[in-house]
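Researcher: Can you fold this with 6-O-phosphono-alpha-D-glucopyranose in place?
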Amino acid sequence: ADIDLGEYEHYMLKEIFEQPTTIENAMRGRLNYDEATAIFGGLNLSSQQLRQIDRIVLTACGTSWHAALVGEYLIEEFARIPVEVEYASELRYRNPPMSDQTMVFAITQSGETADTLAAMKECKRKGHTTMAICNVVGSTIAREADGGIYLHAGPEIGVASTKAFTSQVTVLTLLALYLGRMRHLSYSAGQNIIRKLKDIPKQVEKALECHEAVKTIAEKYASMNNFLYLGRLYNFPVALEGALKLKEISYIHAEGYPAAEMKHGPIALVDEQTPSVFIVPRCGIYPKVISNLQEVKARKGPVIAIACEGDDRVAELADDVIYVPDVDECLQPLVASIPLQLLAYHIAILRDCNVDRPRNLAKSVTVE
Ligand code: G6P
């Protein structure tokens, strides 16, 4: 690739630091504060058609699949439309019942993933409107879709996806807002979301200030061979994505779980050599996540917590804390992902791994 690395040593690090800008770009021209809704130029559907949707299927692979999970929570919460998230590799060979008014979104950075394309084609064959949420303009999936939303994140070179993930989550937030405003979401609730979204690039910029702290923490844990990533609600997909980043570029075994589900298995893995990364920003069930954290501590598991600025309670309980700005629950994935991307990056560097070109992986998987 001939894209300038600038001051950065690796594309992955450069792309992590681009996120305040790429998130901004994903929102550019798409927010209408006066109407308290989002605007999309490329959906090619009338509001009549959009109002008739009774179910949404989000299909994707890898990191894009994690973004889809956040999308499920957002769309169900804002628009009250039932959402199903499907691995494209499964959906292409499954035959789940879908109502005539089910709309399908393929979520893909590259627009070239073979399984995602095949799943989309299968849904099209059965008459469903299929949309693409895609980064690469003019890619196969973008062309095959009936319409779509581009991320405008610019080229992503690092094999491990970072900025595409946060852009996907941003676009899904706008989509949830848009569909919500055609249904149940009030004017003031819509404006409230827009106001908070507009603040997000600045908050992500602030989240990036954890860089040095994360580096120090990485040194402490880089020699360990098993990690758990735990979070709840909007931060459950963030836990999955954090674990995937570590696996992909540092070749360390990591599992992401909903924090409360841990007692049904993964807690058996906890020991002094198995750190747990807890994503525990302030939220409605904060005390519940804290008690999950204490269960791990009681079993001598080291805990790294991702918490909101000013959370002293967590600092007393966890071995290490990385602070991120306090944002609305539904927007937390956008800030909480930042330290996890950086943690994976630094651990991989310390283990001498090729962060931009990890073994056995491809930027886009165009074969089955
Ligand atoms: C590959 C990449 C991942 C990516 C996945 C889906 O496995 O290594 O980073 O998340 O494909 O790619 P897509 O381009 O469809 O988002």
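Model: Folded with 6-O-phosphono-alpha-D-glucopyranose in place. The pocket of 6-O-phosphono-alpha-D-glucopyranose is lined by residues 61-64, 108-110, 113, 116, 159-161, 361, 363-365 (CB under 6 Å).
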